[in-house]
Write a structure and sequence with these properties.
The protein has one domain: Flavodoxin domain (Rossmann fold). It is of the alpha/beta class. The two termini are about 15 Å apart. The protein is globular and about 35 Å long. The longest helix has 16 residues. Helix 1 packs across helix 4. About 35% of the residues lie in helices and about 25% in strands. The protein has 4 helices and 5 strands, in the order E-H-E-E-H-E-H-E-H. Pfam families: Flavodoxin_1.
């Protein structure tokens, strides 16, 4: 049995959920044991149950994380991740995807071990699907 990986996500239109499912398939292909969970059903207290984690959130508003459900869970989790490898992913539909740059900077400032980030413009195309599977493999092998 490979690394246990929590894939924690929030989705508005379904694009980030589709990305989470592709990431889940990538973890399985890489020999890991994934658990796909909506952010509303996850808490920082569960982080220690996993070897690695992936967090998915689309760009919202002015290039921000979703603030009602996702951001409070992310803020709590980032403090207890320790050295666990983490992937950040999500979709966007406007601007340049700067929310991911900002999110990665936020993670770096909290000393989160981010091994990859993956973005998709709207629904994940073949390139985004391939990037998610590659990121999943990197996470499982980290």
């Amino acid at each position: 049995m490979g690394k246990s990986v929590a894939i924690v996500y929030w989705t508005g239109t379904g694009n980030t959920e589709e990305m989470a499912q592709a990431f889940e398939a990538g973890v399985t292909e890489a020999g890991g044991t994934p658990k796909l969970v909506g952010v509303a059903d996850f808490s920082a207290g569960e982080v220690s149950s996993y070897d690695a984690l992936a967090f998915g959130c689309p760009a919202m508003g002015d290039e921000e994380l979703e603030s009602e459900e996702f951001e409070p869970v992310w803020d709590a989790c980032k403090e207890v991740l320790g050295g666990r490898p983490v992937v950040l992913f999500g979709s966007y539909a406007w601007a340049d995807g700067d929310w991911m740059v900002n999110w990665k900077e936020n993670a770096d400032a909290a000393s989160v071990n981010v091994v990859a980030t993956v973005t998709a413009f709207e629904a994940p195309d073949d390139d985004a699907q391939a990037a998610l599977k590659a990121a999943a493999k990197t996470l499982v092998e980290a």
